[in-house]
Amino acid sequence: MVLARSLLLITIVLVGNGGETKGEDWTEFRGPTGQGHSSARGLPVRWSDTENVRWKKGIPGNAWSSPVVSNERIYLTTAVPRETDNPYDQSLRTLCLDAATGSVQWNVEVFSQVGQTDDRIHGKNSHASPTPIIDGGYLYVHFGTEGTACLKLDGTPVWKSQELVYTPRHGNGGSPVLVDGLLVIICDGADEQFVVALDRRSGKIRWKKPRPRTEAPKKFAFCTPLVIQAAGSTQVICPGADIVVAHDPADGRELWLARYEGYSVVPRPVYGHGLLFISTSFNDAKLLAIRPDGEGDITKTHVAWRASRGIPHTPSLLIEGDELYSISDRGVAKCVDARTGDVHWQKRIGGNFSASPFFAEGNIYFQSEEGDTTVIKAGRRFVELAKNRLGAPTLASYGVADSALLIRTATHLYRIEKL
Length: 419
Prior knowledge:
Layout: H1 2-17, E1 53-58, E2 68-70, E3 73-81, E4 90-98, E5 104-113, E6 133-135, E7 138-142, E8 148-152, E9 157-161, E10 177-179, E11 182-188, E12 193-199, E13 205-210, E14 226-230, E15 233-240, E16 243-247, E17 254-259, E18 270-272, E19 275-279, E20 287-290, E21 296-297, E22 303-307, E23 318-320, E24 323-327, E25 332-337, E26 343-348, E27 358-360, E28 363-367, E29 372-377, E30 383-389, E31 399-401, E32 404-408, E33 412-416
Parallel strand pairs: 17-21
Antiparallel strand pairs: 1-33, 2-3, 3-4, 4-5, 6-7, 7-8, 8-9, 10-11, 11-12, 12-13, 14-15, 15-16, 16-17, 18-19, 19-20, 20-22, 23-24, 24-25, 25-26, 27-28, 28-29, 29-30, 31-32, 32-33
């Protein structure tokens, strides 16, 4: 009897701990923290087009949105050209894939783009670049001025909105963020620039704030907001051309702003050690470390340090521990002290970069536009662990599903894991 009870107890423990360890859901651009961190265990360090590939699935259309993951399902957007004589006619779609097998569970059209509704799409952009966001059993997708929508996780539409009207430059860009029941989106077009909050349940505009006046000759940008807790309040950080503004999510009220020179801002901010890190993007990128605890214009009072060499125009930054990491568009990786900006190391790793790096299990992954990923050990000394080649172009940032990487190329989605 004692032996039987012991065997039963062992069985219960084995069943409770058996099977694959489940990681956190990857619910938005740059993951659940919005800053490129994953708690997943056992992610691969080495792979190729054939090695450690669980599956490879062809994705229709052309898009650089990143995959998001919830409850063993992968969601991503795409733009499929229609069979017309006009190359701007696009079917703007959302797909759901089974994370284990890559099989398509559903594929629905959310909006239909007819004719040329913006200027020519930039060569590094697409008609479906913003990454979706998942929360509470709902999926939110954004296609710039073409429309924003909320879907159930089975693809059923809840609401659709086409109220965000402005003239984009080079196509759409920044992804939405969720905070306090609101979907906050930066809309920095060529003609009009504003930050807007939609009610997550209805899609109705709750507040809309024009950008403060600047002298920027080019006013467009493509940034994704970051929600932080600072100075005893929730702040929505919204970089744009020549300016970064912190908004109160309740009503859009401006909490503080800082000015700089820069436009076409793409990198999402990161936050750590009481400092907010902003890249000013084009033309001559600068890095600002800002203390977000002031009021009004804090340009002259709250910038802790600045840097001007090897700063990314497109990839977001990465903070881990006391170090701040970056990869420039031309392939220069750098590690600096987050508190002071002092450089620990700088290394050209080769290639061109648009995807944002991410961190897991002490390692940092840098993915190039050519489809090569350099994996390094996080730390104050440069240690390369692997160089991996898929041989296909990719500008989308990573997704994570359990112990696997999700990498989107121009034509396929890969599930990469240790096999």
